[in-house]
Amino acid sequence: DIQMTQSPSSLSASAGDRVTITCRASQSISSYLNWYRQKPGKAPELLIYAASSLQSGVPSRFSGSGSGTDFTLTISSLQPEDFATYFCQQSYSTSWTFGQGTKVEIK
Amino acid sequence: EVQLVESGGGLVQPGRSLRLSCTTSGFTFGDYAMSWVRQAPGKGLEWVGFIRSKASRGVIEYAASVEGRFTISRDDSKSIAYLHMDSLKTEDTAVYYCTRENEWQRYYYYMDVWGKGTTVTVSS
After folding, report:
1. Which residues contact A104 (CB under 8 A, 6 or more apart)?
2. Which of B96, B109, B116 is the mutation pick for testing A, counting most A CBs within 10 A?
């Protein structure tokens, strides 16, 4: 299975901050990379698919980049609802695998 | 409105079976692959498996951790996906989410709609 490693595992930030989360794959996955946000006690929701395509209805403060093994999720200006846990997921080969998550906390 | 609603969770003893259902509405169920994802208490997300649409030959794939014990199926006439779990272990304790898999440019798959989840607790 392809291993997905996110960094950092957690971070503290303030509303309005620019936040960057990294996801690294154990082998090249081209652009088959998705990002999800999970608010506490809720189901995950899709933010970005195919590494950089913004899901319909998702605010433009979210952006994704990268290809091959290294990917980035950027939140340009953190909003209160963005304090949550973020997961990357590869869909290059089954079985799909997720990163371990990055928890974004209030500073 | 697109909706996925999981049901069938509960407390079950190790070694027993349980069937989860995912009842859907608001979209043409038969056109989409459906996946199951689980989340153990305080842990991350783990993909369990998927079933593709009939147009994609209904291909089914499972995670190694559940292969041979779990079975995914679908009833397109009822717009319901199922996860049948046999020989349950304590480590199967988790919230189980049903998701819709969408596809972009034919090979980019992503889970664009999620249910609220149903809790399965395996304990004696």
Report:
1. A10, A11, A13, A19, A21, A75, A78, A82, A83, A84, A85, A86
2. B109
